[in-house]
TrEMBL record:
PANTHER family: PROTOPORPHYRINOGEN IX OXIDASE, UPF0093 MEMBRANE PROTEIN SLR1790
HAMAP family, alphabetized: HemJ
Cofactor(s) this protein requires: heme b
Subcellular localization: Cell membrane
Record-given protein name: Protoporphyrinogen IX oxidase
Length: 151
């Protein structure tokens, strides 16, 4: 019964999964960019700029990044539960799962860095955030190749 429902909803579940993924990725790309500017400029521009960055970072995390991650996970797991969608004897579900777990770790890493900026205890420089900005790009490539090429 529930499985029939999942099967009937499959294209919709997949469509909303991809929509949630796009929102999540947009935030995962933008937040480390904000951290680059925050880490590099805050000394020159004073406490008002610091507060403005903090507000942008908090809202991006709370209003977009967290809800988008939850929606991506819930809809993704519904797809996993849909009969005939995932064949665990193939390689692609495993590479995708590994990259998705790494993406979720990156999300948590960014959330911890936000708390440090809010407490005024950030120790990392702009260069570190520039480098970390590449992490979601690399993981995105692995995920899209996994689901589309299906090795
Ligand atoms: C968070 C946990 C996630 C789970 C459990 C999950 C699971 C799934 C499953 C089972 C499918 C269906 C595959 C098919 O019908 O062929 C799917 C499709 C898809 N996923 Fe995810 N996914 C997750 C996160 C992500 C992320 C982070 C991305 C991108 C960064 C992503 C991108 C996609 C895309 C583009 C498709 C559509 C592929 C197609 O058209 O066949 N997913 N996902």
């Amino acid at each position: 019964m529930f499985l029939d429902l999942l099967q009937a909803a499959y294209p919709w579940t997949k469509a909303f999964h991809v929509i949630a993924v796009i929102a999540w990725m947009a935030a995962l790309f933008y937040l480390p960019r904000l951290y680059v500017y925050h880490a590099e400029r805050v000394g020159d521009l004073g406490p008002e700029t610091d507060e403005m960055f903090q507000t942008m970072e908090r809202l991006l995390l709370r209003a977009i990044m967290n809800p988008a991650m939850i929606a991506t996970w819930v809809l993704g797991l519904l797809l996993v539960a849909t009969p005939g969608v995932v064949d665990w004897s193939q390689l692609w579900p495993w590479t995708k799962a590994a990259a998705v777990l790494a993406m979720s770790w990156f999300h948590g890493w960014l959330a911890t860095r936000r708390k440090e900026f809010a407490a005024g205890t950030n120790t990392r420089d702009g260069r570190t955030y520039r480098i970390m900005n590449e992490v979601p790009t690399l993981l995105l490539v692995v995920i899209v190749l996994s689901v589309i090429v299906r090795w």
